[in-house]
Amino acid sequence: MAFSDDVRRIRAIVWKDLTTERRSKAGFNSVASLGVTILVLFGLALGPDGKALHDAAAGALWLAILFAGVLAFNRSYQVELDGGALEALLLYPGARWAIFAGKLIANLIFVTLMLVIVVAVGIVLFSVDVPATWPRIVLIMMLGVVGIVSLGTFYAAMSSRSRAREVLLPLLLYPMLIPVLLAAMSATKALLFGDVMNEAGAWMQMLVIFDVIFLVATFLAFEYVIEV
Amino acid sequence: MFPAHPNQFGPPKPAPAWLGWLAFLFFVFAQVFSVVTSPADAMMGHLQKNMYVHVPAAWVAFGAFGVVLVASLYFLWRDDERADLLAASSAEVGSLFCGLTLVLGMLWGRPTWGVWWSWDARLTTTLVLFLIFVGYLALRSFVEDPHRRGQWSAAVGILGAINVPIVWMSVQWWRTLHQIQSNPRGLSPVYLRGLLLNVAAFTLLTIWFIWRRYEAARYERAAEHAAQAAALGGYNA
Amino acid sequence: MPSGMAGGGVGYVVASYVITWVVLGAMLMRTVSSVRRARAEYDQAAKGEFRT
Questions:
Q1: Overall number of domains in chain B
Q2: What residues contact A126, with CB distance under 8 A and at least 6 apart?
Q3: pLDDT given for residue B2 in this prediction
């Protein structure tokens, strides 16, 4: 069964990446702290007026997740490159997309954990009233994270192996993420304000479409990016 | 003596000199002719003449990015390095015209709308497209290995092209207040003639620019191949 | 109707044509010189190949 082999490979890569993170912890702690720090900076830029903070909360949250997440994506390949492990990983038999899927899932878990911390701090700092529709906000956050992580994991496969990786990843990634971010921010904002215009559902549908398109595109293109 | 690699190509066939002269003379003619012959518009006054530079620049920019998409797909399909060099040349020329489009659009928007910039779908999508191709060119300059550079930039170019309709859709939805499409059928014949003339002139110029940039890239690669062959020959002897 | 549409737009029109011509002129110089340089580089390399 070729497919179950791929699933085993994916699981092995996810496990390996998460174990590395768990053993060192420094990576996660610093990335999550950076997310919180960015939120504080946004608060200083927009505050101290409570209403302004409240209005901007959705945007600030997503940008904090984005800025901190970018560091996670480069790291995820950086640890491989330092030990020359990526070449070894590529030498193992099996489909290349399994490597991408493994990295993607590991990054998803990493960013989701960071998101929990950032959102918790954001609710406090930006005086957000959690609405009754909070399960939908959670769903939107998951969809948004899938979009950010799929493109981020894909572009980091290139930028982490080039010169100037620090500047190249944001330069390539941010313009590509504009639709995902726009949809995620708008949906979150709409729900935080009671969804009076009834637009959150439409944004959520768009987010699902974007996620599917970008997931398919990155899975197909990864083959070409990783083999050289 | 050496196995002929498919990408071990020689020097390019130069673009014909008459094409360059034709492109530039026709461009000067089209610009002067359209400005001189078109009367001041009843609504927009002389501002209407912005159309003869802004609209053609936008069209050729999008056309050049279309060439990038096709050449990138061909490169991934056939692994022909010449397609990669063509994509790079088109991306460069396309970014130039895309940037020009944005600046010219602002020079029209300021006196017409009273603002330099408006967050409508067309402007925002053009800006995002420009940023994507700035990233594309940066990626190329940061990667040395030609094969790796080709594969990576092809992936970035194709994903960037996929992103264009998606950005359009999301911004359209985000900001439903948008401008009406510039539609050639709604123009009076005197303006339409000037516009089409300039679109033709810009297209010729773009073809010539891309061709010459491609030529330069081919020479550079051919020089590297020749230097490599010389070094290998010296080593073997 | 915002002010500047009727008569004051001429400055903006002149600016847009000046910018277009300057940008395209610069691109022309850059393109021609890059082809010339690359060609000289190639001729040099090709000569080197024949000498060895």
A1: 1
A2: A39, A43, A53, A54, A56, A57, A60, A61
A3: 47
C4 pLDDT band, cuts 50/70/90, is very low
Q: Which domain holds residue B100?
A: 18-176+187-228
pLDDT value at position B185?
52
Cα separation of A53 and B42, whole Å? 47
Domain positions in chain C: 24-52
Nearest to A176 among B151, B159, B174 (CB): B159
Task: Supply the pLDDT for residue A50.
Answer: 77
Q: Could you tell me which chain C residue has the CA closest to the CA of B12?
A: C39
Asked if the interface predicted TM-score (ipTM) of this complex is over 0.90, the answer is: no
pLDDT digits (tens, 9 = 90+) for B216-236: 999 998 888 888 777 776 544
Distance, CA of B190 to CA of B188 (rounded, Å): 6
Average pLDDT, chain A: 87
Q: Does C29 touch chain B (CB under 8 A)?
A: no
**What is the C-alpha separation between A40 and A121, in angstroms, rounded?**
9
Decide if B7 is inside a domain.
no
Of A200, A208, A202, A190, nearest to A59 by C-alpha is A190
C-alpha B42/C-alpha B51 separation (Å) is 15
pLDDT over 70, % of chain B? 89
Query: Does residue B57 belong to any structural domain of this protein?
Result: yes
Mutation site for C-interface testing, chosen from B49, B54, B97, B130 by largest number of C Cβ within 10 Å: B49
B87 Cα distance to chain centroid = 10
- Interface probe for B, chosen from C27, C29, C50, C51 (most Cβ of B below 10 Å), is C27
Tens-place pLDDT, residues A168-185: 999 999 999 999 999 999
Rounded CA gap, B80 and C26, in Å? 31
Quick check: A206 contacting B, CB < 8 Å? yes
Distance CA B218, CA B86 (A): 9
